[in-house]
UniProtKB/TrEMBL annotation:
Gene3D superfamilies xref list: Winged helix-like DNA-binding domain superfamily/Winged helix DNA-binding domain (1.10.10.10)
Signal peptide: none
SMART domains reported for this sequence: HTH_MARR
Cited PROSITE patterns: HTH_MARR_2
GO molecular function annotations of the record: DNA-binding transcription factor activity
Protein name (database record): HTH marR-type domain-containing protein
Taxonomy, superkingdom: Bacteria
Annotated SUPFAM superfamilies: Winged helix' DNA-binding domain
Pfam families per UniProt: MarR_2
Gene Ontology BP term (one): response to stress
């Protein structure tokens, strides 16, 4: 048996990072649920708040979702009144999705929840450790990210 198997996966940094990511994803989802949002919903609202008009295809690429999944998600967001999508567009015509005032309100409600989750103490870290962790995670992302979205340089 290889030594790393006998020692257990806890000694493998990538394994620990994956476990920490899964735990943080679960905490992120729980906190967003408290204000009526889900992670993908939150991400769509953030993208639309930053860029006032994006197509469904652009959003799907940014969130690494299929166009069909994005269409379904946007349908739910439109039903909730958080986004608007013009109807009656012709084939090949650009159809922009826009954030509504209600969508901005929903996004604003997430602010305090995310601020609490992002506090270094909530992650068991000091402010200095949180800064170091953030810088290291950015480096890991730059090294392993194979999507075609723009990369930030540390």
């Amino acid at each position: 048996m290889p030594g790393w198997v006998a020692a257990g996966p806890e000694g493998i940094p990538a394994y620990t990072l994956a476990r920490a990511g899964a735990a943080m994803n679960a905490a992120f989802a729980r906190r967003l649920a408290a204000v009526g949002l889900r992670p993908h919903t939150f991400s769509v609202l953030v993208h639309l708040a930053r860029e006032p008009a994006l197509t469904s295809a652009e959003l799907a690429r940014r969130l690494a979702m299929t166009p069909q999944s994005m269409s379904s998600l946007l349908h739910g967001l439109a039903d909730a009144g958080w986004v608007e999508r013009p109807s009656g567009a012709r084939r090949g015509q650009r159809i922009d999705v826009r954030l509504t005032p209600a969508g901005r309100q929903a996004l604003a409600a997430a602010g305090p929840v995310l601020a609490e989750l992002g506090r270094p103490e909530a992650m068991g870290l000091t402010a200095e450790e949180a800064g170091t962790l953030h810088a290291l995670l950015e480096r890991v992302l730059a090294a392993v990210d194979t999507t075609d979205r723009p990369r930030r340089t540390p």
